[in-house]
Write a structure and sequence with these properties.
This protein has about 400 residues and is an alpha+beta fold. The protein has three domains: about 90 residues, Integrase, DNA-binding domain (Double Stranded RNA Binding Domain, 2-Layer Sandwich); about 90 residues, Tyrosine recombinase, N-terminal domain (DNA polymerase, domain 1, Orthogonal Bundle); about 180 residues, Intergrase catalytic core (hpI Integrase, Chain A), CATH 1.10.443. Helix content is about 50%, strand content about 10%. It is built from 16 helices and seven strands. The strands form two sheets. Strands 1-2-3-4 form a four-stranded antiparallel beta sheet, with helices on one face. The protein has a three-stranded antiparallel beta sheet with strand order 5-6-7. The protein is elongated and about 105 Å long. The mean pLDDT is about 85.
Length: about 400
């Protein structure tokens, strides 16, 4: 006899569990505690099995019958309903683990394993963990181009066009990783090419007038702040490298006898090691600061700890304390200064580019430049050091 809602509600608990049958193998198990559980008895592979559908009343009579009918259809198709349920649970759990956030975590771990520079990992982590946070719990296969565009447009409308562009590229890299690890079928960032406004290109603030630059050099020499900060600024200007490469400079990278500083690939923007010829002036700066980091790894340690480098903002903060505004000069702008002055004085542009560690787009030419310009770079770096003395 088929059950009714009235009969189910009227069923009272007894001293032992008992069943109320609804037909087709479906029954309601009434427990001594008063709980009522839907079950289905069936045979598969010559064995009797019991499949549970949940408790009443959350699972109604109509819903229980629907689940019974679905299970019976699986049996007709020679599929074990209990086995299929386990597979469905595994699939659901797997899908829950395939969120954008979890795939992004794996992508960041892979970057570390490949030896990406700490600054690159930090920036990528910020993009994926902070800016892309709204995507973190979303199943990666369900994320759409429209959803990404909405996220990127919010960043773009805040004035951070370059940040929006970088975020799109970084999210695209996560999707490429998801595709090759079989957790995504397509990259939803591809349709968004051209959808964002181009970044507003602003050059690095730099002083290119030789007399004005001489005044700045004098201010740096007279700066009475932390000694490694003053020395770091002087060394940055003399070597024409990027600020982060000076801040992270390690004693083991220097051969003072040969007057060479070799920056390893993992600390270079282009992921190629870069040998820097050291002028007499650069060696003098190192001589003055070397003893302060005795027993430590870093050449220009922070004021707080010898184990920590100067902060990202340290050089620019010092320039502001000297009275220079951010639209007048920046630490990264010293490379612009060197390039402008050396080019204006007629020095070989290819050698200047090699000094600045700029990548030539032509692979053969790039290899040739790296192989043949060492002598010229040594000479040019000494010329630059002597010019700086003249400017002061």
């Amino acid at each position: 006899m088929r059950l009714s809602e009235f009969a189910i509600r009227k069923a009272k608990p007894k001293g032992k569990p008992y069943r109320l049958s609804d037909g087709g193998g479906l029954h309601l198990l009434v427990q001594p505690s008063g709980g009522k559980l839907w079950q289905m008895r069936y045979r598969y592979g010559g064995k009797e099995n019991v499949l549970s559908f949940g408790s009443y009343p959350p699972v109604t009579l109509a819903k229980a019958r629907q689940k019974r009918d679905e299970a019976k259809q699986l049996l007709i198709d020679k599929v074990d309903p209990a086995g299929q349920r386990r597979l469905d649970q595994i699939a659901a759990e797997t899908l829950a683990r395939q969120t954008f956030g979890l795939v992004a975590d794996e992508y960041l771990e892979r970057m570390q394993e490949k030896g990406a520079a700490p600054t690159t990992i930090t920036k990528t982590t910020w993009l994926l963990k902070d800016l892309a946070q709204p995507l973190s719990k979303r199943p990666i296969r369900e994320i759409t181009p429209a959803e990404l565009l909405n996220l990127l447009r919010r960043i773009e409308h805040s004035g951070r066009r370059e940040t929006a562009r970088r975020l799109r590229g970084t999210i695209g890299s996560v999707f490429k990783f998801a595709i090759v690890t079989l957790r995504a079928d397509s990259n939803p960032t591809l349709p968004l090419h051209g959808a964002l406004l181009p970044p507003k290109v602003e050059g690095r603030a730099a002083i290119t007038d030789e007399a004005e630059f001489g005044k700045l050099l004098g201010s740096i020499d007279e700066y009475d702040g932390w000694p490694s900060l003053r020395a770091g600024l002087q060394f940055l200007i003399l070597t024409c490298v990027r600020p982060g490469e000076v801040r992270g400079a390690k004693r083991a990278e220097f051969d003072l006898q040969k007057a060479v500083w070799t920056i390893p690939a993992e600390r270079m923007k282009m992921r190629q090691s870069h040998a820097v010829p050291l002028s007499r002036q650069a060696l003098s700066v190192l001589e003055g600061i070397w003893s302060l980091s005795e027993g430590a790894e870093l050449v220009f340690p922070s004021i707080r700890s010898q184990e920590r480098p100067l902060s990202d903002a340290a050089f620019n903060s010092a320039l502001r304390r000297m009275g220079y505004e951010k639209d007048e000069v920046t630490a990264h702008g010293f490379r612009v200064t060197a390039s402008s002055i050396l080019n204006s004085r007629g020095h070989n542009p290819d050698v200047i580019e090699a000094v600045l560690a700029h990548q030539d787009s032509n692979a053969i030419r790039r290899t040739y430049n790296r192989a043949t310009y060492w002598k010229q770079r040594v000479e040019l770096m000494q010329v630059w050091g002597d010019l700086l003395d003249q400017f002061k």
